[in-house]
Amino acid sequence: MDVLLALDIGGTKIAAGLVTREGTVIDRGRIAVRSNQSDENLFNDVAQLVDAMLTKARGQHGAQPVALGVGCAGPMTENAELVSPLNIPCWRNFPLVPRLRTLTGLPVFADGDAKALALGEGWKGAAKGHDNFLAMVVSTGVGGGIVLNGRLLDGAAGNAGHIGHVIVEPSGRRCVCGARGCLEAETSGPAIEAITGRPPTQPTYEIIQRTGRLVGRGIASVCNLLDLPLAVVGGSVALGFGAPFFQAAQNSLDELCRLEFSTGARIVPARLGDDGALVGAAAFALRGMNRMARI
Fold first, then answer.
1. Alpha carbons 116 and 279: distance in angstroms, whole number
2. What stretches of the chain adopt beta strand conformation (E)?
3. How crowded is residue 292: how many other Cβ atoms within 10 Å of its Cβ?
4. Inter-axis angle of helices 275-294 and 113-124, nearest 10
5. How far is CA 66 from each of CA 1, 20, 43, 120, 219, rounded to the nearest angstrom?
6. CA–CA distance, 3 with 26 (Å, rounded to integer)
7. Which residues pair with residue 68 across a beta bridge?
8. What residues have CB less than 8 Å from 206, skipping those under 6 apart?
9. Residue 30 bridge partners (DSSP)
10. Tens-digit pLDDT string for the chain (295 aa)
11. What is the pTM of this model?
């Protein structure tokens, strides 16, 4: 049996999985990202996680990994040849994909982590059957991926979908990107802790309402701009805040999407949980292998 190795690289954790060609995750593992790590120490942790998954694939599952798909926080250059995740300060222009190719000997196909979520939720999750939608993560960072007319948007440098840097509070908090009032600077886990003095796992009702309202504000701008009827939202903050967050976000969307084509746009929870980005990373690998086969 052939399998795809998938990596989901975020600001606080890195997950790996073994995914079938049908999009089923058959094994998974994860490590924490430590804030004081050097670039090489972090990559060594990634290498150990990858090696462990390769061993499981061949030993426990009798499977042969044929490609590696990676979803990584950005910004990045094309195919994540160089990555500079805003929430992983030790990686600046880090040659992620070349290092992974050398490590595994596999073809490696990579893109943004929230773009991976978009592919995963479109393939197996809450956006299945939809050709136009936004998928986004509200977690350590805030990122997004946009599917328009059935195609994942890339943009000039491959970084399309960075909804976390839509301005929702003019003159608001300073963002790690350097601007003020970005959605990420107001609603990410670290932002909530800085604003409230409490971890996002211990929110007040007021902060849940505020976070949902601002996320809905950012989504409304994208729905009005791109004629999108659906937003799928995942990540530990959004899913952890639960129904009150999603109701506040929907109320904000209803208030701000008043054009004939955007009225009725919906916000729904991501269905695949932590597996969504892994399934999407596997989709990167499948897409890349198909393109290679056509050359």
1. 8
2. 2-9, 13-19, 25-32, 64-72, 108-112, 133-138, 142-148, 151-152, 230-234, 266-269
3. 11
4. 90
5. 10, 11, 21, 19, 37
6. 9
7. 5, 108
8. none
9. 15
10. 899 999 999 888 999 999 999 999 999 999 999 878 899 999 999 999 999 999 999 999 999 999 999 999 889 998 889 999 988 999 999 999 999 999 999 999 999 999 999 999 999 999 999 999 999 999 999 999 999 999 999 998 889 999 999 999 998 999 999 999 999 999 999 999 999 999 999 999 999 999 999 999 999 999 999 999 999 999 999 999 999 999 999 999 999 999 999 999 999 999 998 899 999 999 999 999 988 777 6
11. 0.92
Per the listing, tokens 């008043």 go with 258
Contact predicate 145/139, CB 8 Å:
no
Task: Give the pair of three-digit tokens for residue 217.
Answer: 């504000």
